[in-house]
Protein 1
Amino acid sequence: MPTVVVVGSQWGDEGKGKITDYLALEADVVVRYQGGPNAGHTVVVNDEVFQLHLLPSGILYPEKLSVIGNGVVVDPEVLVDEIQRLQARGRDTGGLRISARAHLIMPYHRILDALQEESMGERKIGTTLKGVGPAYMDKSARVGIRVGDLLEPDVFTQRLESNLRDKNRVFKYVYGKQTLDAQPIIESYLQAGKFLKPYITDTAVLVNKAIRQGKKVLFEGAQGTLLDLDHGTYPYVTSSHPVAGGACIGAGVGPTKIDEIIGVVKAYTSRVGDGPFPTELLDETGDWIRETGHEYGVTTGRPRRIGWLDLMMINYAAVLNGLTGIALTRLDVLCGLDKVKVAYAYKRDGQVITEFPASFKELAECEPVYEEFSGWPEIDPAAKSLDDLHPNARRFVEFISHKTGLEPAIVSLGRGREESLTLRDLFQ
Ligand code: IMO
Ligand code: MG
């Protein structure tokens, strides 16, 4: 039975929350597999807006299982707050399951994130300051503390004290900052552990069992391909693996168990944080798209950098993820523009480049080669086929398919759940 991975094909903020929520209607289980509270997923249900950071977007369907997999880094304070906020809005969170193997973001990770950024000055990454990078660093260094440790006070206390000895040395001698006391951290984390206990389990067992039973499992990507630690625009990336392969590691399922991999593609490009951006629009059109599309970070409130759609990037994402289709979002935001451009190649030193460059210096020197389209005045939110779209919008969609070799499986027609056009049933 089908399992579907939804992945970001750009630099994050492609509309993964909306697409996941829409596909979750049919799924039995929704799994977040990597990243942490650096994600900001917006879901609109009957005009009610939900902004999720750690909770999988499936959480808005009470009867489904929503899994936070082992690959996610969990800040218990953020998670408890998110659960309580949903409960206060009358939402049932009983379907949540959290991997005992997921690593914890600790208070010192958040502080280190800020200190590292500060000390890099001009060369800073522009992180979300949620402690995500330092938490993954500790995981790789094999000194991380895991969600399951919250349920074993002795183990938690011993690991925390040992970590804190090291971190406090760094705070004091490297950065000349105040050290942290263990006790308040122990108290607040064990308290959060009590609250989270009913949700904590071995989620890999659960997800594999669901797959064996023929249930429909949806893997919800966070961040995007170009933010991947290995494949993204390093060093301006996150510290984990948003690509589809990350779903296997971060949820504990074998690669042979994945059937469909859908890349979410926004009709234009956005990026938060620093780093090269070939199709960036530093003009009024960029400002107009930012305002019309409310392109401000859900997690940090930062204005997002805006540019035209870049198919060099999408083709790169298609290969790295092994995409089987795309979900096109935010065509509606571009309504009313006279002209819409799409980059389909780069030029560097007068030469056409056909592969996305590995070096960020090279990428910064690339000039996009554009195809220009006449704009479309509107997108019918109730369109039932591509033929119902304005001819100019249809040409834009067809050009994307032509240049990527990928058909859209879903076209988003607006923010709401129902404003979506399905062209292929992914769970068939
Ligand atoms: P969603 O899931 C957009 C970016 C940050 C920064 C870099 C590293 O909403 O698409 P980090 O805090 O992860 O160490 O920051 O990655 N970044 C995102 N940008 N959307 C996201 O998530 C992001 N998560 C991280 O802005 O450039
Ligand atoms: Mg975001």
Note: Residues 8, 11-13, 38-41, 125-128, 130, 132-133, 222-224, 227, 236, 238-239, 272-273 surround 6-O-phosphoryl inosine monophosphate (ligand 1) (CB under 6 Å).
Protein 2
Amino acid sequence: MNWPDKILICEVGPRDGLQIEKAILTAEQKIELIERIADAGIKIIEIGSFVSPKAVPQMADTDEVAKKMKRKADVEYRALIMNLKGLKRAEDAGIYKAKLTVSASKSHSLANLNKTPEEAVQAFGETAEYAAVHGISLSGAISTAFGCPFEGKVPLEQVMRVVSCFYNIGVKEISLSDTTGMATPKQVYEYCSKAKKLFPDVVWNLHFHNTRGVGFANVVSGMLAGINRFDSSFAGLGGCPFAPGASGNIATEDLIHMCHEMGIETGCDLDTVISLSRHVQELIGHETSSFILKAGKSSDIVNSFKNRDK
Ligand code: ZN
């Protein structure tokens, strides 16, 4: 088997996680979370989104967060945008990495944006031109890349058509997102292997929600297909837009724990992430779908038995 030596984790909790929470954190609280996750060794952090505050009130202060947070030179701070207006807000706030998102499913995209996925990416052309001139790098996220609530399984060819649209406007870092938690390990392996073959110079990233308990099996499938960048969320925050109350993103501490137990480096300090994730649960005021926060680390159990025998 083709296991990676190390993986790169992108923390999406401050955006994908907090955006669906009822509790709206203050800018100071968000800044603390972002600074602490950077201290834990995470090198890519999605700090928020520059979208309409009416649509997503939880993200209304992303400008303030970006301007006030302390930054590390080797960390990439990125934000989600929907259009040129959002990109300009990012630039004003000193954010030089922006993520554009489009749905792979035609019905989902038409319902949300009144555009097909291909039209939606083409509409990003002006934004991509501005980004290129102003030194802002872009990544493209393809949501419902594996399954769509309206259409079911999204065919590989359809996903690759959207990838090539991104590619044609110069976006060569692409995330395949299982927003709805419908992906399965075999499908992930097939889609990722094919994607890597068709677009060998694209930097691939995977984004899994653990909605139906197969998030980590999907991570492993992605690894075996040669992908080594994964999104995750502290405490497993996040949800499924079509299933209120469902499990969220795979939890950062669960991902780090699994990797370290397999001898795969993440560059992160697990204990720092665990204490941060406990703090996140306190801030939002409810339990989340993190496994490690409930069960502890494997090594905790081994140590507790060793101590009992003494
Ligand atoms: Zn997500």
Note: DSSP finds 14 helices and ten strands in the chain.
Protein 3
Amino acid sequence: MAELIVALDVGTRQEAVDAARRIGEAVGFYKIGLELFTAEGPDVVKAVKDLGKKVFLDLKLHDIPRTVERAVRSAGRLGVDLMTIHSVGGKAMIRAAADAAAEFGEGGPRVLAVTVLTSLDESDLADVGIVGRTPADQVRAMAKFATANGAHGLVCSPREVGDLSRTLPAGTLFVTPGVRPAGSSVGDQKRVATPAEAVADGATHLVVGRPIMAAADPAAAARAIRAEMNG
Ligand code: C5P
């Protein structure tokens, strides 16, 4: 059954904890990203873990293998459940991340690879030397590369998840943002899918922010999305 992850896109630990408390039992998994982690550091991860919730630490690591390995180990010690690295960090970096995660056994962090940022188009790729490949080609190639080198899964858009889930090995995690319940505001997201569509396409985890965080009743919004995912 696919899991719902709520993006804690807030600036302070207090706001994060207040939101998670308010949502309560309706959500068991939260994403902490660069803004919140840079402001509050490991304490915010501990605070969310102390509420009995799982944490997806979305820092998109990209550095030399030794540095990434040590960062993954630090995340493992904090009890992080899911985390992200950039697949363009290369084979040794991906392996180092996966090996560090493996030290924590079954309960350790799962490492997700980012293939191509959804903010990049073909001309942006050409600017950084990736010529003659569309973003979709590059996503496919990097997804295969990252999972072949130890990544447990991928962050992918609703547009990509169907293709990737059909071609990559069973057990690969597909974590999909850009999810909007039918009829809700899309905000700045360009490529959206409903929760049911994303799960039918093979998403194992959906990342949802504003449709829950900005709802008048966030717990009810989360329950409605879970019902759509699993119904
Ligand atoms: O509010 P919303 O549901 O759009 O939030 C989606 C979350 O997923 C945000 O934290 C956003 O940064 C993240 N994300 C995304 N698209 C990507 C990668 C990450 O929306 N391509």
Note: Residues 7, 9, 33, 118, 157, 177-178, 187, 189, 207-211 surround cytidine-5'-monophosphate (CB under 6 Å).
Protein 4
Amino acid sequence: MSKRWNVAVVGATGAVGEVMLAILAERRFPVNEVYALASRRSAGSPVQFGERTLRVEDLATFDFRKAQIGLFSAGGEISAEYAPKAAEAGCVVIDNTAHFRYDDDIPLVVPEVNPGDIARYQARGIIANPNCSTIQMVVALKPLHDAVGIDRINVCTYQSVSGTGKEAIDELREQTQAALAGTALPGRVYPKPIAFNVLPHIDVFLENGYTKEEMKMVWETHKILGDSAIRVNPTTARVPVVYGHSEAVHIETRRKIRADEARALLAQAPGVVVLDERRAGGYPTAITEAAGQDAVFVGRIREDLSHPRGLDLWVVSDNLRKGAALNSIQIAERLVENYL
Ligand code: A2P
């Protein structure tokens, strides 16, 4: 019988943790035990793992010697404290927070792009899962970068509230209901109303005027594509969508690529589905294509009117799945297949 693994899901009651449990069951990851971990507040409460109901355990008292794989998604501070402890106990951590992503000795992996980097997990026993908006962008850009080289990326994102977590989903729902009833409800999570609005702000502001979410897209694109010469200029925005991030990606390539060539390359690319019909509705959107699905959907592929080597793309994916839980589990699948 092939080997089975004990997997700990840290943040199992959260927006990403729930999807991690669902995808582990859906993809029949070879589990023996699954431990659902969260804060003491949630200890004893039920979470679903496929048909089974698991009881949440308190992360603070969990013995990581019981697990070989830890999927972490409970925030950077929790990972900072517990991921090294888990790794020390022999549990390989796949961390969905930004905490370790930029450390040179921590691999940052998108399996369709740089699967070979998983081999470097042994240095610290931790593999970082990239930011949701970076993952879907690099899955779409990898085949184009391989073919003609990307010199510059201008990207604007339209990111759903589930990327912030469950409280943000509640805030959008409550504010939307209140607004429809004619009242304005102040926010707890976002600094301005998110219902019927767009906020050009994700994560904290940095000294250079960009937000940290924007700089994550710069740093992570360089690290995952292994090419720090690519110039990246992001604007990240939060929109009143629950599941699925959309991105308008404008690239300037080193050699010219025609739209039909790009479309053909993308149609063959792993993890990508092209939906690019030049008619009303012939493009992917968060609700109609991305939510609940695994692929990165690409549409609106066209040559940039304003630049001889410019190409425009519209890229949409489920931020909780490919942007977080699915990518982590795809890393885990390769880890157990090739390295453990
Ligand atoms: P809990 O539900 O017990 O607070 P989201 O991203 O949807 O906001 O979810 C965050 C996840 O991180 C939840 O599962 C939450 O558990 C978990 N979490 C938050 N703080 C802690 C903590 N101190 N210890 C363990 N898990 C935590």
Note: The first helix runs from residue 15 to 26.
